[in-house]
Amino acid sequence: MRCPLFMGTSSCLGGLICSCCCFDDDDKPNQEQEPAAMAAAAATPSADDDQTAIITHRTVELSTGVRLHLAEAGPSGAPTVLLLHGFPELWYTWRHQMRALAAAGYRAVAPDLRGYGDSDAPAVADPGQYTALHVVGDLVALIDDVLGEKQVFVAAHDWGALTAWSLCLFRPDKVRTLVALSVAYTPRSAARKPVDGLRALFGDDYYICRIQEAGEIEAEFARLGTELVLKKFFSYRYPGPLFFPKSGWGSLDDEVPLPSWVTEEDLKYYTNKFEKTGFTGGLNYYRALNKTWELTSPWTLAKINVPVKFIIGDLDLTYHSPGIQDFLHKGGFKKFVPLLDDDIVVMKDVGHFINEEKPNEVSEHIINFIKKFS
Ligand SMILES: *[C@@H]1O[C@H](CO)[C@@H](O)[C@H](O)[C@H]1NC(C)=O
Q1: What chemistry does it catalyse, as a reaction equation (predicted)?
Q2: Which of 141, 139, 146 is nearest to 162 (CA)?
């Protein structure tokens, strides 16, 4: 398959962002997969539930003026692993890895990123406050002033991974290693703005294109209700491009079973926070793509100079963006990420929310990788 990256006709970037949205009439296959997925994962969830107490919480005010909610686990003097969530997620997506990292002797720190959960959503009506430079600015302030670290280990998923790639580009001195989940690094292309490339490739209903228009998707999410929206995201396992059709993202009557790796309690936590804070903060990251592209011209075709481990599920929509498998497996990715671990992990029968769906395996990969650099 032709990779748009090498043809200079478009940028893959946006196509790799959070690929967990639905066609309005395509929920059936998910339901059929449910029993098998349930049996496979039934053994994992309960073991670490009773250790919840070791996760502590605080709110810190950064020198960027933004207050972030932090969840933390592990001894305070230990090497720090910063965990960055995606959309529509929260620090909570890392709960399993936090316990595993703490048990392995690391300090795990998972913020709600700006715009999310119990953190500030600064100027939420102005997506210009959500560029990669703003979000990375928060992280640098967090690392320097709050955590008091010269360097941290980073693990990141979905939009968190995009932010982590930017952190590695802008401030490689701050990152010891990166474990990136679901979203690969694709360098900025000077030839075309990412949203234009995506529109040319997938059309106006492609989710990232629909999200550009302030308020439209918020209205659709409000019609469906926060809980159903989150269930639809979490249960999504369709390996292909995703669309928010103008006719609606499904019906209120849709039966959307919870995936085995999301408990009622988990769903309640996410629902309460997104009810309170709304989706706009997270959606602003997509709406800032244009401005980020404008501001990052100095990093056109730049390489990532940090040791990296990459992990992805074979049912993750991000693994089915046009050209991505060739890019990952035939040298393109390695060219732009020279310190990439050659063993790219492709997990079988795993969807987008890989750190929640395969908590033990992902924790092990993170710990084994950072151990080599500790
Ligand atoms: C970004 O730019 C594209 C055109 O290049 C436009 O279609 C889209 O609406 C813009 N997004 C925002 C949030 O302004």
Answers
A1: an epoxide + H2O = an ethanediol; (24S)-24,25-epoxycucurbitadienol + H2O = (24R)-24,25-dihydroxycucurbitadienol
A2: 139
